[in-house]
Amino acid sequence: MTPAVVAIIVVVVLIALLILITIAVRYKTCPPDKIMIIYGKINPNPDGTYRSAKCIHGGAAFVLPFFQKYTFMDLTPLSISVDLKSALSKQNIRIDVPCIFTVGISTDTGIMQNAAERLRMLTLAQISDLARDIIFGQLRLVIATMNIEEINADRDKFLDAISRNVEGELKKVGLRLINVNVTDISDESGYIIALGKEAAAKAINDAKISVAEEDKKGSIGEANAKMEQRIQVAKAESAAIDGENQAKAEIARSQAMLREKEAEALKLAVTAEKVQAAQALEESYAAEEKAEVSRAAREKATKEADVIVAADIEKRKLEIEAEAVAEQIRRKAQGEADAIFAKMDAEARGLREKLTKQAEGMDALVRSAGTSDEAVRLLIADKLETIVAEQVKAISGVKIDKVTVWDGGNNADGKSSTANFLSGLLKSLPPLEDLYQMAGLSLPKIVSPQKAEETEASSGEEA
Description:
alpha+beta; Tetrahydropterin Synthase, Chain A
């Protein structure tokens, strides 16, 4: 290889290595406890303006050299102690609410953008101070909308209201509320302490009332137990006497029923013997009847089978014969149709051949005549004999049984009336020249002397 080629290869290799090194250096990964913020020339918005920053949590991105820069923001939670004092409640009573809030930078897409725009240059201490100011204001606002009883008794409602108000404001700067812990609630006037004493006294009184109620229930229960004991003893003695009497009556009833059962058993035994004999005879008759019915059904089925089989065979035979006749008719009709088609096809081919030859003859005639008019004249001249014959036929079929001619003797040119009649009859036929004119043609001068004279006369006048 020449030195120039070697130099080009070295340059290409160096450029490739430079590109790889640039990619390796500028391809940045984001740790899980941080947010990577890429700023500079970021992909434009739909309106053509460039975005202020691109935030990434997790993953990696390529940072364009010269056009973009990057930085990281820490996601470490911040514990903020808020010692709120003399906050005015809804009842205009000032209370102290010391709380501990845990906040951190949010990883939601839109909120991360707010953090990049508003917190990127702040330290964790500055971010903590900013969050404390926001929390103080919102905490006072929440306390001003609630009674002390609600704040002290319903802590869940109080914490939910704090979370709603505080987190909504923290999102505006890119933070999120992680946890709220209210350590204690107290007031300057001792209202909360009084509420506690009232609750304790109420609890003590309720306990005393419960003890008295239980004592009353015990005395009443003891008296009721003794009364129930005496009633149950009397019922037991009465039940014992009734039991003895019922036992004696039951013995007598049992003996009577025994005698009755013996009589019924004897009666049933005799009746059963007679019933069994009658049933046996009835079953014998039923079996014979069933056998006769079965034999009649078998004979009927045999006869029906013979008739049906013969009828089916005859029916099948007729169907086969009908199908054979129909097939023969179809084949004959198909043959006739094929013959007619062949005949019509042959006639069509003959007519086409005839018309083709006529067309070729007409083409040759026109080429030999020079013009179409001359060709037409040649055709008419060829058919002149036929045309004259057709003219003669016009009067050849006229039957003249009798002609009466009255001749007065005043005939001119020495012609009789009969001659004039015949001459007029012949003149009623159209002359040959008129026939040509009807066809849009004219006879040649040699055939039409009159036309020759008219042509010479017109030529003389022009001269």
